[in-house]
Amino acid sequence: MEKHITLPLTNELVSSLQAGDMVYLTGIVYSARDAAHKRMIETLEKKEALPFDLKGQTIYYLGPTPAREGQVIGSAGPTTASRMDKYTPALLELGLKGMIGKGKRSPQVIDSMKKNHAVYFAAVGGAGALLSRQIRKSRVIAYEDLGTEAIREMYVEEFPVIVVIDAQGTDLYQRP
Amino acid sequence: MREIDVQTISDAVRELCIRINYELSGDMQEALMKAAETETSELGGKILGILEENLKVAKEEQIPICQDTGMAVVFLEIGQEVHFTGGDLEEAVNRGVARGYTEGYLRKSVVRDPLDRVNTGDNTPAVIHYQIVQGDQVTITLAPKGFGSENMSRVCMLKPADGEEGVLNAIVSAVKEAGPNACPPVVVGVGIGGTFEKCALLAKKALTRPVGSTSGKPHIAELERKALERINELKIGPAGLGGRVTALAVQIETYPTHIAGLPVGINICCHVNRHIRTVI
Fold it and tell me: Which chain B residues are Cβ-neighbours of A129 within 8 angstroms?
């Protein structure tokens, strides 16, 4: 089914999504990939506050290319999600509701998604030029020293994704 | 003896880095177009359409095809009649990569140490493979490699008794386990023979062959065909969401090996299989 959703995600919105749905997202998403995840977890271990409140938010596993003058962002497609698996359950426990990436997730992440009522979307890998057009605003809000791996707050409009794993744990990659 | 200033090499590397990240080579474009014609899954077809559109947008609007603009892998075939002047060759290559990635608005994806993981800020160093050949020319092949698919690659030290079937199983299971992670439709580079490191290097080199070309050795060409057929029976499909086109090509290079061994290197590349060559 095709759906158009305004972020942030609520429990009701998450419940309405099923593996296989084509979804167009509008609203705020945060970019974070390997190094930013590692640093967020270290921050939590030190009992310090994260750069943004995870409640209801969506993280896009992304490290873009630099923007040219006049561009909002450079090429901006998804990176492989499984590298974030080790860090993900802790973030889901803090209220993270959505993740955008590509590729498989671990059983631990899927269990935590079911427990915390969250959804995992895939964007088309290797379509970063096309996807960048749907990102209308972008600013680095934390970890600037990480370069492409910094955390960005981005406003996306009609950003196309597919629900790969829904909150019931149904996994589109595991189809018969 | 022919003298070549290393700055010429550096300038060429810069140019190649930029060019290949904004426009795929003709063989890859053609392979993707052909894939769209043969894909029977509706969603698979749609995704291949998106990839074609992405290539168009990348070229027209000057946005890199993929945000992972790769670690620069450089093959240098150097004629033995060449004498380099003007400085250190390796430094010149890295200077070309740094300028290409900085001036070309490409992503800096390289960290200085695999464990402390501090970004070098200019995508250097490149991985450089040197080969001394006959003549007085230098052939530069640049293949910026994305790591979504690199992470799904492997080396299998098979036994001679495993034979052709063992090789086929190794190739197919690597692609199967990679699934959606490697951004299918993939190109599979395979190196068979040599030693542990030689088969991996052959696999990487195989990815730089024009996609759609077949091995000059009939039994290897047949193996390429069989492997491709079996991979496309997996139905992983474009983006791993189901379909007929899981791989665009399987390309195999071979080398003599030891009586006790059958090394197989499998280097998977996503559909953004960037390779470009120039002769100086």
Answer: 54-55, 57-58, 61, 63-66
- ipTM field: 0.95
B261 and B166 both lie in a single domain: yes
B145, B176, B196: which is the final residue of a domain? Answer: B145
Q: How far apart are CA A10 and CA A8, in angstroms?
A: 7
* Shared domain check, B7 and B122: yes
Q: Compute the mean pLDDT over every residue in chain A, rounded to the nearest whole number.
A: 96
pLDDT one-digit tens code per residue, B98-118: 999 999 999 999 999 999 999
Instruction: State CA A139 to chain mean position distance.
Output: 16
> Containing domain of residue B214, as a range?
148-273
Residue B19 confidence (pLDDT) above 70: yes
- Among the candidates B110, B145, B180, a domain finishes at B145
What residue type is B256 in one-letter code? P
What's the confidence (pLDDT) of residue A1? Answer: 86
Cβ separation B63–A74 shorter than 8 A = yes
Say whether both B125 and B154 belong to one domain: no
| Mean pLDDT of all residues in A127-149 | 97
Minimal Cα–Cα distance from A48 to chain B, Å? Answer: 23
B107–A contact, CB cutoff 8 A? yes
d(CA A174, nearest CA chain B) in Å: 10
Q: Is A4 a catalytic residue?
A: no
Which residues numbered 30-59 in A keep a CB inside 8 Å of some CB on B? 35
Asked if residue B122 and residue B106 are part of one domain, the reply reads yes
B131 lies within 8 A of chain A by CB: no
Non-local (6+) Cβ contacts of B146 within 8 A are B66, B68, B69, B70, B183, B269, B270, B272
Q: How confident is the model at residue A176 (pLDDT cuts 50, 70, 90)?
A: low
Residues linked to residue B154 through DSSP beta bridges, in sequence order:
B266
